[in-house]
């Protein structure tokens, strides 16, 4: 280990990769306050086109699940079936995500992304046709799974690009925080857009827009070759999975729990809006959740933290657990909206802490895979949350389904609290020993 706070890893020949030696800023500590740390990050050469392309390419992530629920529910009248279809897509994302991440590490992002994108668009066309033309149900689930398995992993890939561009500098934690903020912005705009298009126009309009944005954004991101990290063929091909690192397994649980919260609330809030005769405003509730998370993410990335990351993660998950409880009791739309915003404040801090810990826990050659595992956990959690919530909504109503979100957050907080040793960065790995308390 070196005094920059970034861990080293022994190579197969006994050599050590110092991952940014020569700097003096631990990545486990937020950077000191500057007038605008995010603007400082965006001044990185070629960063702005990369960020804009990734923004377009990421919008479908917040549109596909909800769009599928709205489309299937409109065609069949069942939230349970809509949640099941969305869950199949999310499970497929969970299974395929690490594989795609590993391939991107080995064969370069551009090559993998363009191939995946072609499969994604084709699967989307089949899915839309199968639902609208009343094809056998197995074709709906199969095409939803294929589309889920081939969702372009732009969110993970841009985090790897930031790590490649800024490793060993105090700007990296801010860049990762900014990406979580962008994710939240996507989850503000996406649900509102897909709900508006699906409920005021043709029922397929929302999903058609999502697939179009994925195609355009994915291609624009792929051509940003000046920010693309080189493939790590020699270093990573045939090597062990990043999941062999026990700390990453703890972070996988965090990702799954946050995903379960999001998946549950996506179904619960749409159903709640329907129950109170505000179906057209369902997207606004989901946007409110993302708005709360985005606001906290902006502040989180700008604060000069002294508390260790692993402790911050526990605190964020406890807050998330508490803030979901009031959603069980509300019976009015305009009472629900501010409480949803409050519930969102712990989402982004949880994900920022998880991604930042993953970056320092795994070898350089496995960073894409590690980030993709967390993204995979999110997708798996969304699948489980959406499926369970859909069934509870059909049986007991929207409010009762929120219990799934509360339980998921509590479980994650307990797992992280018990797994502190696995997430601990020893004092010799950081410039400030206080961070390793």
TrEMBL record:
Mode of membrane association: Multi-pass membrane protein
Protein localization: Cell membrane
Ranges that cross the membrane: 50-72, 78-100, 112-131, 137-160, 181-199, 205-223, 250-273, 279-301, 313-330, 336-358, 370-388, 400-419
Keywords: Membrane, Transmembrane, Transmembrane helix
Any one cellular-component term (Gene Ontology): plasma membrane
Domain Major facilitator superfamily (MFS) profile, residue spans: 247-437
Main location per the UniProt record: membrane
Ranges for region Disordered: 1-21
InterPro entries: MFS, MFS_dom, MFS_trans_sf
Pfam families: MFS_1 (PF07690)
GO MF annotation terms: transmembrane transporter activity
Protein name (record): Putative MFS family arabinose efflux permease
